[in-house]
Specification:
The chain is mainly α. The protein is built from eight helices and two strands. A two-stranded antiparallel sheet has the order 1-2. It starts with a strand and ends with a helix.
């Protein structure tokens, strides 16, 4: 069964718009305080949110990268089939976890487990993109005729490079947290 890609692309854009919006809206609870004794108290609160803002910025850039790689893949994918739909559904599930994993790593920057949860979330998302690309290039009827071996290899290498960056981040987090013990 060959289906057109427009519905999955529209769903992707909608999910990314919502997830990216939820990330900043969820930070609203962090600064909602009824009373400050003085202006300095508010400044202290804002300064204490440094980790949350850093996590937000990193996650927003990661989400933008994920959207771009997905968009790039779908530029070459002409048709989808039920397995691609389900690959994307699972991918969306982990995309939607990014605001949660971002919030816990931002709120608990000195702990190892939040960092690992965040990094594993990102690793799973990039791995699913790799799986999707591997799936469609083995099924030539799903990709456009203009897709050549050079582009197939480039897309594969880009996603593999992103996966390696996340694996490196996991290793660095581990070493950093072991050194802090």
């Amino acid at each position: 069964m060959k289906l057109k890609t427009n519905r999955i692309e529209a769903l992707t854009d909608g999910i990314f718009a919502i997830v990216m919006t939820i990330m900043i809206i969820s930070m609203d609870e962090l600064i909602r305080v009824n009373h400050f004794a003085k202006e300095a108290d508010y400044c202290i609160l804002l300064a204490s949110l440094w980790n949350d803002f850093a996590s937000y910025a990193i996650s927003f850039i990661i989400l933008g990268t994920l959207w771009l790689v997905h968009h790039w893949q779908f530029h070459h994918i002409s048709y989808i089939d039920p397995p691609i739909v389900f690959i994307n559904i699972i991918w969306f599930m982990f995309i939607c976890l990014i605001p949660f994993s971002t919030m816990i790593v931002g709120n608990h920057p000195n702990f190892f487990m939040p960092a690992i949860i965040f990094e594993c979330n990102i690793l799973i998302v990039f791995s699913i993109l790799y799986l999707q690309w591997a799936y469609v290039i083995k099924r030539k009827h799903l990709v456009g005729a203009s897709l050549d071996d050079k582009m197939i290899l480039l897309q594969r290498n880009v996603v593999l490079s992103l996966i390696m960056v996340v694996i490196l981040a996991i290793a660095v987090s581990y070493v950093y947290h072991m050194m802090r013990r």
